C-alpha cells in the first residue's frame, strides 16, 4: 500500500465523466486553437493539447469536436468519498470565515479526485468571493465543464470575474447565456444593464389552453 493509500484509505477507484468544453471559455488560450482546426480531423497534436489541459492524472478516452464545443470522455482514479468529505468541510469552513483553510481543503479534495465537479465548483466560488478573479474564472470554467446544463449562479460568478478582469465582452456573453437560462432573473438583468447591454425581453408564458368537451 502506498503512502497516499494509507492516508486516504483503500477505496481508491476509477471514475469516468463526460465533460463539455465550450469554445467561448477558451478564446485566447492554447486549448482555443483546437476550435480553429477542422472538426472532422482529430490529429495527434490536438489530442496532446487536450491531454496537457487535463493533466497526467486524467486519462482521455474519447473526444468529439464541433466548432462550438468539445465533448470528451475522461477517467481518473481517485478517492471520491474522501474528496466529497473534504469539499463539504471546506464549504463549512468558508461559511465560518476561515477562507484560507477552505481554499486549501478544496485544493486537497481535487488533488485526490481531479474529476470532482462539486469540489471544483466550490473552489471557484470561494476564489471569487476572495476577489481572486483570475484563479476563480479558471476554476469556474473547469467546473462548468462538469455539468450538462448551465447554472445561473455559476454564470453570474463567471461574469463578475470577467468584468473585474476588464473582460467586458466576455462578461456580457456569460450574462446573456444566463439570461437565456432564466430570462426573469433580476440579478442577471441588472448586471447586463450595468454593463450597458439591455437584456432580451422574457417571452411571456402562453395562455392556458381551454379545455373542450361535451356539455
Number of strands: 3
* Helix-strand pattern: HEHEEHHHHHHH
Which strand order does the major sheet show? 1-3-2
Query: How many distinct helices?
Result: 9
Q: If you had to describe this structure to a student in words, what would you say it looks like?
A:
- By secondary structure, the protein is α+β, with helices and mostly antiparallel strands.
- 51% of the residues lie in helices and 13% in strands.
- It is built from nine helices and three strands, in the order H-E-H-E-E-H-H-H-H-H-H-H.
- The protein has helices at 3-8, 44-54, 80-95, 99-112, 117-129, 133-146, 152-164, 168-181, 186-194; strands spanning 13-22, 59-65, 69-78.
- Strands 1-3-2 form a three-stranded antiparallel β-sheet, with helices on one face.
- Helix 3 packs parallel to helix 5 and helix 8 (168-181) runs antiparallel to helix 9 (186-194).
- It is globular, with a radius of gyration of 20 Å.
- The protein starts with a helix and ends in a 21-residue tail after the last helix.
List the defining traits of the structure above.
9 helices; alpha+beta; 215 residues
Amino acid at each position: 500500500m502506498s503512502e497516499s493509500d494509507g492516508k486516504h484509505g483503500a477505496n481508491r477507484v476509477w471514475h469516468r465523466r463526460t465533460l463539455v468544453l465550450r469554445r467561448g471559455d477558451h478564446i485566447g488560450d492554447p486549448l482555443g486553437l483546437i476550435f480553429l482546426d477542422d472538426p472532422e480531423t482529430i490529429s495527434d497534436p490536438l489530442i496532446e493539447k487536450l491531454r496537457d489541459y487535463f493533466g497526467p492524472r486524467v486519462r482521455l478516452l474519447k473526444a468529439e469536436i464541433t466548432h462550438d464545443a468539445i465533448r470528451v470522455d475522461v477517467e481518473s482514479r481517485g478517492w471520491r468519498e474522501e474528496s466529497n468529505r473534504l469539499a463539504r468541510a471546506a464549504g463549512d469552513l468558508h461559511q465560518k470565515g476561515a477562507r484560507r483553510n477552505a481554499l486549501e481543503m478544496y485544493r486537497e479534495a481535487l488533488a485526490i479526485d481531479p474529476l470532482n465537479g462539486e469540489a471544483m465548483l466550490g473552489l471557484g466560488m470561494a476564489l471569487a468571493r476572495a476577489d481572486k478573479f483570475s484563479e476563480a474564472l479558471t476554476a469556474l470554467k473547469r467546473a462548468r465543464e462538469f455539468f450538462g446544463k448551465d447554472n445561473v449562479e455559476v454564470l453570474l460568478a463567471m461574469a463578475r470575474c470577467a468584468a473585474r478582469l476588464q473582460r467586458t465582452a466576455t462578461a456580457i456573453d456569460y450574462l446573456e447565456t444566463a439570461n437565456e437560462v432564466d430570462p426573469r432573473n433580476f440579478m442577471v438583468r441588472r448586471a447586463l444593464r450595468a454593463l450597458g447591454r439591455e437584456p432580451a425581453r422574457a417571452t411571456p408564458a402562453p395562455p392556458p389552453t381551454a379545455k373542450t368537451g361535451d356539455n
